[in-house]
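This entry is passed on directly below:
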Amino acid sequence: MTTTSKADLLGLTLPQLQEVCGQLALPAFNAKQMAEWLYKKRATDIDQFSNLSLRTRAALKEGYCIGRSKPVSCSTSSDGTRKYLFAVGEGRHIETVYIPDGERGTLCVSSQAGCRMACRFCATGMSGYHGNLTASQILNQILSVDEAESLTNIVFMGMGEPLDNLDAVLQATTALTADWGMAWSPRRITVSTVGLAAPLKRFLAESQCHLAISLHSPFPDRRQAIMPAQQRHPLAATLSLLREYNWRGQRRLSFEYILFKGLNDDLMHASALVKLLHGLPCRVNLIPFHPNAGAPQFQPSPQAAVSRFQQYLTSHGMTATLRTSRGQDIDAACGLLASKQNPSTDIS
């Protein structure tokens, strides 16, 4: 006997929910009611849709479910950071990190199981690619952590390259920011990318969320040595696109720069970085490298080198902030997410 899996309602936009109503011959206004239950009231079961008739709920349950699932486990760092493990089907798992900081509560969400970009220093990249997440699986992370009600910010900086799964990321951020959805300000959401120019152009046109570019070296050959994606997605194309965009609105542009000892942390790199980003209204986030067993060739920059680098940028008119390491003792810090539960064979 075979069973047909049900489709998730979570992640669907209002027009898509209207399509569901059309398919089931339900009144069109049911779509807005469903959106309210999914995104504002955060229902976990169709039976909770109390303003829909029993007949309507029965019709929905024939082919649909909410799509919510609880995390498999949770680890808590000595600094209060929490790392959640979620199962996403076919034996795959992803990790999600909650970072408390005073009145701010930031959730670092994943967009893929693993990653195709294969950055040499990143545990996620070295773990291989195991498939895209659906919009439902992305939103489930946000709605199912213990801190769901107190989140103030969301960053797409967990496992995966968000622009390599752009349809699902845009669908999820639409549900997060739309009036019929969770009604978050896009200024509370940041999407990170290594710089995939074609999907980036679409992201800039269809979303108002903040943007972060993973840079890590101003020199193309040296960047490619640590970020293989540079060959197919050159930084020059990304920067050209960014220079064409009108940054006069509320959207923020930032560049992520991990500092490696003796590799990209001297004043020659700092000077080249200033020249590379000249004229772009942006900030540079300096990130300490977090050592991992898969990348023994890299070491974190000494504090003195970090300070010199930051001072050079600021003295040349750039906004440069140093990101504090969080959750390193539970492998939740930047570049350390790599679920050991994932299969060893990649899904193409």
Residues 303-315 form the longest helix (13 residues). The first strand starts at residue 7 and ends at 8. Residues 15 and 235 are 36 Å apart (CA to CA). Confidence is low (pLDDT under 50) at residues 343-348.
